[in-house]
Amino acid sequence: MGVIDKLKNFIGVGEDDEYYEDEPDLISKPEPAYQSSDNKRGNKVVNIHTTAQVQVILVKPERFDDAANIADHLNERRTVVLNLESTNKEISRRLVDFLSGVAYANGGQIKKVANSTFIITPYNVDIEGDLIDELENSGVFF
């Protein structure tokens, strides 16, 4: 008996093994990961809460010092609506530049939704709508 024959016998593969189609499948099917609660065998019921709570923060900053608090909201994956109507133009520009960087670093996006109003979203929130698409196509958006 050669080394290969010994290896085949050790593994359980012999030359005279035959497969009969009458025999039932010897391969067991895996049990499903989820079983209903009325199954008396294992009661492997798993309750997973997959609903995520999405928070939208409305901010109307007056000074550039408010940028850190807004950035904290973005870092915690909250959507921020930034209203800059009553903010100085220079401060508004600095805020938008800074918060654009925060959004980019987190994989999010910033969109202008109205005059002096922006929405900043984290990576897991997508913005869709006819108005936004229309503004992007007309070049009003950046």
Describe, in short, the structure shown.
By secondary structure, the chain is α+β, with helices and mostly antiparallel strands.
Report on this model:
By secondary structure, the chain is of the alpha+beta class. The chain is rod-shaped. The protein has a four-stranded mixed sheet with strand order 1-2-4-3. Strand 3 (109-114) and strand 4 form a beta hairpin. The chain contains four helices and four strands; from the N terminus they run αβαβαββα. The model has no long low-confidence stretch (mean pLDDT 75).
Main sheet characteristics: 4 strands, mixed
Q: What radius of gyration results from the CA coordinates? A: 31 Å
Low-confidence stretches: none
Q: Can you tell me the overall shape? A: rod-shaped
Q: How many beta-strand elements?
A: 4
Which sequence of strands runs across the widest sheet? 1-2-4-3
Mean pLDDT: 75
Put simply, the count of helices is: 4
Please trace the helix and strand order, writing H or E for each element.
Answer: HEHEHEEH
Q: What is the structural class?
A: alpha+beta
> Termini separation (Å)?
78 Å
Q: In percent terms, what proportion of residues is strand?
A: 5-15%
Instruction: State the helical fraction.
Output: 25-40%
